[in-house]
Structure formats: structure tokens, C-alpha cells
Specification:
This protein is an alpha/beta fold and 453 residues long. The protein is 37% helix and 20% strand.
Amino acid sequence: MTPTPKAPETNNAPPITGSGRRARERALLVQLRLSGRIEQEELEELRLLAESAGAEVCGAITGSRQIPDAATFIGKGKAEEVRDAVVRERADLILVNHDLSPAQERNLEKITSCRVLDRTGLILDIFAQRAHSAEGKLQVELAQLEHLSTRLVRGWTHLGRQKGGIGLRGPGETQLEVDRRLIRDRIKKLNERLEQVYVQRRSRRRSRHKVPIPTVSFVGYTNAGKSSLFNRLTASSVYAADQLFATLDPTMRRLELSGKSAVILADTVGFIRHLPHDLVEAFKSTLEEVAGADLLLHVVDAANPERLDQMQQVNKVLAEIDALSIPQIVVFNKIDLTGEAPRFERDANSQISRLWVSARTGEGMELLREVLSERFRRLRQRHRLQLPPEAGRLRAVLHDRFDVVRESALESGGWEMELALEPAQLAWLQQHDDFRAEYLRTEPESILAPTGS
């Protein structure tokens, strides 16, 4: 019999290059096709995840099974095939495109003598690299600890101190229990600090709601171009790159529209298939920016052949955070790669529901602005006010903030004004210190027609 080649030792650090930096870890990808699965994880997406984490993909092993193997998920024969590929490709890391139990992960490492990371662990690692704000770092650490707490058995079995017998009696707590207790204490502290963040974010959100400006949140599959679109619209410099999860920390900017109108745009984290539940929980304060929006711009990579499936995955996450009922406009980005021209489509209610643009070339940006302007102009109604001469300061506020349709001078020295107001704008105006109920002379006259209709 030919002896089995010896695999490299597990958990070896990547060698240091001549420049002083560590070389990229070589990753071997593993994916199974399981019968009965409606959704199949794409190997290409795993490759993008690996590269986003900084790994160099050196090969891929695929296969199929009726059901996952309880011990290794991929089965003993496939595990031995992976072991041989690790030796052949000199891999430092095995990335499995599925969620593994702690026991499966441990057993695979024993067979292959190589570090194993499942899909959730890989996504958590990417999030740890991308988080820059204090809140983002807290959220990622919480998600990592929640994930780690189920995987503490590995490496500590030799430190047990409660077996009894001569020489085996100890202080009454195993190293494993100490680690679990430390992790529980750290998770408790993180939750307390994040609760303070949630309170602060809710306070800021309430402050924004006092100002009559609607919020529009970008949502979409990771790498669909949300940040590029955000930068193009707002002339911002939010980090945007052709990699998965380039953006974690939410960014908000004011966008001026036609007709004395404005919106707050929010750039948020991208979604992905089977986004780990720990991440959804940890990032709930960030995702609240989505759930509290007045409108969602669902950005889709028009050039991606999996775009329809990706849209379904995004809607699943939106349902999980109770945001599926918020009105959406689907924005098909990257039309420069498809050869399509900027255009829009309306739904049965004459609302614009789909739009085609390119953030890279700027095609369709003015169209997107007009679509946003129309969307919120549809909510406006005309209101007539009669202001006395002493209400000059309020008149200046009205001209500065709102769409004054017409104005005429009164013989008394005051003014009669007709304004196009959204409900939130009217509510803000009625709470203004200089406003008096008697100024509002009539009920709303009519709903304004949308621009261009």
C-alpha cells in the first residue's frame, strides 16, 4: 500500500514575506450539493467571500450527498479527498460553504490536519476586518463570542479537573467552564454597552423625526453597488470596493431634491444568503435604520445572473427585521455592464417601482433624483394660510423650508400663502413656535400631481 502523504500541521501561521508582511493564507474551498435543497450555495460566492477575507483560493472540492454526514458533514471519503488536496495544494485553511456543528468542525480538522472554518465563521471574520466604528466593533465582537461559545470544547479536554482520583482533583472548575464563564461575562458587558448605543441611536432617530425630512435607506445584496450609488448621489466618499461587505457602518447624508424637498439617505450593510442570525441580532441597531425608513431603495446588480435569487434573499432579511412592508423602489445598478439605457417602470398604482441606473458612469442619477422627488410629492397636499403682518419671521421660514405655490399681499398688511406640504411637514409646522391654528384658513384643497405625469 502507498503510504498516505503527511498533511501539514494544523494552525500554522502564514510565512512572513520579504516585505515583512505575512503572505495570504491559501484556502481550499469545499461545497456539497445536498438533495432536496431548494437553494444551493454558489461556489463563486464562497470564492468572493474568501478573497474578501484576504485569502488566496488554491482549489475547490465539490460533491453531493443525500443528507449531511453527522460526524464530518461531507462524509469520510470526501474528508480524505480534502486531506489529500490540502497536501497537494499546500493549503493553510479549509473553507466549508455550509454551517458546521462544533463536532463536525473538530472531526474535519482531525482528519485533514488543517484549520477548518465554516460559512458563518468566514462571514464573521470579514465583518471583524470591516468594522471601524466603536459600535461596529462591539457588534462584531458580540456576534463572534456568541458563535465561539458553542465551540469551546476543542482544545480544552486535557485540562479537565473534575474527574476525581489521585492527582486529578482540582479547584472545582474546569478550564472549559472558566472560559465559558469569561465569555458569558464579556457578552453581558457587550450587551450593556450596545444597549446604551441603541438608546442613543433611537434618540437621534427621534430628533430626526422632529424635522420634516423623510429617510430613504439603501438595501441590497452585498456588492450590488449601494455605497457607489450613495457616493454618486451625495458627493460623499464612503468606502466602496468590488468586494463583499465593503460597508458595515451606516452613513447618513442629506440629499436636496427639487421643489424645496429633501431626504436623508442611509447607506447600510449588505445582505447575503443565510446571513448568520448572530449577526442579525448583533447589528439590530444598524438594521433599525432600515426598519425605520420611509422608503427603501433596493439596489440590485443588473449584471449578475443570480439577481432574482439575491432579491429574494434580501427580502427574507427584510422580513426578519420587520421591514418588508416599507415601500420599495428596485434600483437595477451597473447597466454599463449590460448595455441597457436608463429608464423606469411604474406599477399598477402608477408608482415608479423599478429604475435602471449606473453608479459608475452616472447614467440615470438625475432620473433617480426625480423619482425620489415624485415619490414624496405624491404625499403633498395644498394648504392655504393667512398670516398677519407680525408673522414675518414665520413667512421667512415657510419660504426657506417649504414649497410656496403662490403668495399674495392682504390689505391688512399680511399675506395669503398657498403651500404644498407633506403630512410630516404640516405636523412640524403646526408645532412651530410662531404658528397659530387660526392661520390655517381651509382644509387641504387637492393632492398635487406628480412631476411629469
